[in-house]
Design brief:
The chain has 290 residues and is mostly beta strands. The chain is 1% helix and 43% strand. It contains one helix and 24 strands. About 3% of the residues have low confidence.
């Protein structure tokens, strides 16, 4: 199981031991008088003891695995310990809360809950094989379509489908990009070219703009962790521009044979790059997953 939390803006305290409890009984009471009932349980998935989660900007992942006994029907999220057993990081001043006196409060946001069997196979994004079609024909993109996957297809930087395997009928040669999240929220990216010719007997020349520099430029690794490389197998000067998914320019640089960037401080997510050189151009995307 995996989920993410972050401390709310303006909160004055962060705690450790935030977890997920799997249980066979539905429990709805939140009365303080029944708190001892909740603290009698030990969550199967829990954040590390002694490390309060205090980040209010980035999401903190909490994950783990356990052997289920088959009776689990409900999941409860929170902390299941008395205050004296928690590690608390006080970020600001205490404040008064009603007649209970002086308290320090921490409220968390929760997101990206995923639950799956250990060893379950995860398939990366696969936009399909580049093809050549006659104008007016249709072609199906992609290679799989699962309910617990998120798909986002783009052409010319615009989303046109969230299906796993959409049909398209381009009038001109087009590059289709697929951004995907699997059941565990792993992000991958793939792209494919569809070359459009006017007559069936015409020669299919090239596989689209994204492969014009394929023999010259290599971008790796993708997904990216700490560093990304752009290398050229042929001499020449290239202009490289990188934007984040919102369109903000992150980097603009020229290079000849090879260039490497440290991405350890870049935010996780999808980035768009544009390469221009030797009268050719290429547009693509890569994903940062720290």
């Amino acid at each position: 199981m995996r989920f993410h939390v972050k401390l709310g803006q303006g909160m004055v305290s962060g705690i450790d031991q935030i977890g997920a409890l799997f249980d066979d009984e539905r429990r709805t009471s939140g009365n303080l008088s029944e708190w001892d009932v909740w603290t009698s349980f030990t969550p199967q998935i829990m954040s590390p003891i002694g490390n309060p989660i205090i980040d209010t900007v980035n999401w903190t992942e909490i994950s783990g695995s356990f052997i289920a006994d088959g009776t689990e029907r409900f999941i409860y999220f929170g902390t299941f310990e008395h205050t004296e057993n928690l590690a608390i990081d006080t970020l600001g001043e205490y404040f008064h809360y009603g007649f209970f006196g002086i308290h320090s409060v921490g409220v968390y946001f929760w997101d990206d809950f995923s639950l799956y069997k250990c060893g379950q196979e995860s398939l990366p994004a696969d936009a399909g094989k580049s093809e050549c079609i006659t104008i007016g024909d249709s072609i199906q993109l992609g290679s799989h379509d699962y309910e617990d996957y998120f798909y986002e297809w783009r052409v010319n930087d615009s989303v046109f489908s969230t299906e796993g395997m959409p049909w398209v009928s381009p009038d001109t040669t087009s590059i289709y990009g697929l951004y995907q999240q699997d059941f565990a929220f792993n992000e991958t990216w793939s792209q494919v070219s569809v070359v459009v010719i006017e007559n069936p007997e015409d020669e299919c020349v090239g596989l689209g703009v994204n492969e014009q520099l394929d023999s010259e430029i290599h971008v790796y690794p993708n997904p990216v962790d700490q560093k990304i490389n752009f290398t050229s197998s042929e001499s020449g000067t290239y202009q490289l521009v990188i934007h984040d998914i919102s369109g903000k320019e992150i980097l603009n640089s020229k290079f000849d044979d090879e260039i490497e960037f440290n991405t350890s401080k870049w935010t996780q997510g999808v980035y768009i790059y544009n390469l221009i050189g030797s009268g050719k151009s290429e547009k693509g995307k890569f994903i940062i997953i720290h």
